[in-house]
Specification:
single chain, 160 residues, alpha+beta, 2 domains, 6-stranded mixed beta sheet, 48% helix, elongated
Length: 160
């Protein structure tokens, strides 16, 4: 069993990638692309992630595209043990990715409802401004998402 004690998600787009380290001083490279998951490991004492990328393949499997950490843990449970610290940190990353996705959808819908001719570059500037305003009033992500959803619903119902 490989014990991973640190892990960083280095790409949220395709391919999904993580880089980490084991308790016996090896580097780990994890990659999912087009439904294929591979995990490679360096020799002991390596200091460059490239050593893991070119290292020994310790796991290969089909995987869902857009693999998330919980799915990674489930697929590799017989080969890899993730430390509690890694699990906690990766769970926080997954939650933040979820909120980022939800805010992106909500802000774009709000923008569509308040602008006659949507323009993506204008949207990006507008989103940064409106996000700052909402964060000041609603620092809690759940409350902020509820407030944005309520505003969208009101606009869709014809409210000004």
């Amino acid at each position: 069993m490989i014990n991973i004690i640190s892990l960083t998600k280095t790409s949220t787009a395709a391919p999904a990638q993580w880089e980490g380290a084991t308790d016996d001083n090896r580097l780990v490279y994890i990659r999912e692309r087009h439904g294929s998951l591979t995990i490679l490991i360096s020799s002991v004492g390596a200091t460059d992630i490239g050593d893991a990328v070119r290292g020994e393949m310790i796991f290969e499997s089909d995987a869902p595209e857009g693999l998330i950490f919980d799915e990674l843990m489930d697929l590799t449970k017989d080969t890899i043990h993730f430390s509690e610290e890694v699990i906690h940190q990766q769970t926080d990353v997954s939650i933040n990715e979820f909120y980022g996705f939800m805010f992106g959808l909500a802000y774009y819908r709000l923008y569509e409802l308040t602008h006659n001719k949507p323009d993506f570059l204008d949207y990006l500037n507008w989103r940064d401004e409106i996000d700052d305003q909402y964060i000041k009033v609603y620092p809690d992500q759940n409350e902020r998402l509820k407030a944005i959803s309520k505003k969208i619903h009101g606009l869709e119902q014809g409210e000004k």
